[in-house]
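Subgroup meeting minutes
Present: P.N., E.W., G.H.
Scribe: E.W.

1. P.N. recapped why we're keeping a running log of single-chain structure predictions: easier to compare across weeks, and new members can see raw inputs and outputs side by side.
2. G.H. added today's entry (313 aa).
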Amino acid sequence: MKRWPWLTTAATLAMASCQAGDSGGNGGVVRAVRPAFDANRAMRDLERQVEFGPRIPGTDGHAEQLEWLQTQLAALADTVFLDPFQHVTKEGDELKLTNVIARFGPSDGSRLLLLTHWDTRPKADQSFEEADRELPVNGANDGASGTAVLLELARMFSEQPPPGGVELLFSDGEDYGPSTEDMFLGARHYVAGIGSENPPAFGILLDMVGDADPNFPIESYSMEGASQVVQRVWGIAAELGYRRFFPMDAFVRVVDDHVQFIDAGIPVADIIDFDYGPSNGFWHTPRDVVENTSAQTLSMVGDVVAEVVYRNR
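Output recorded in log:
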């Protein structure tokens, strides 16, 4: 993902329909009937990915993660398939990439899309230490966290099918870079192949959702291109007692996978914590490690997304 260098607090944006309960707890909330999100299992999935090493296209860690991810999903989803593709970078390097797609329920009608990226940044180019900028990024938060949440949601969907069709997209090549021409590659490939017959009704992108000190302001492209999705997600977060972590009066603008969908007319909202560490100092650095992530944050995000899915009819 890429951030524009400003953060706004824009209370003037219309959020009236999103003003759900503002209490600190979730007493009285009628939750959807669904399995509980297992935070410990999600955290183990995060740790397992980091154990593969950096998941950079063309590396052993990337290949091992792909095999592991396919195996996990094959035991859970109604349909799983790999969508390999290639990309030539600005420098002339040829990348072999693979999107992983898992489907639950009918795929011929309206469906909800949940997506994340599973690759990691080749170089820690945001490190404050110049000597570290050639090192690969571990991607505990930026790569493994969203994947861990979607895997645990897949287990929930397998145990109790959602009321409608759900598609999970694990996109590759989101974080290759360094320029945006060589980023968001899996999302671009997916959008190019959708066609006009049966696109997803709407989607939710999970990116950097494991920070031990979480904060998920509304992402501005999401508000502009997927306002109803934003209202639904942040409203449910408030209902569940997470308003402190999903503030409705703070906004950040981040170019991410969801913009590819919005540009194609598909409303996708981005749940992203782009304040990872002091001064965002863990993002794209060697400090993106397991110790700076939290099972509780994975659980909170998973809880919100699960509630959206199981209420969607």
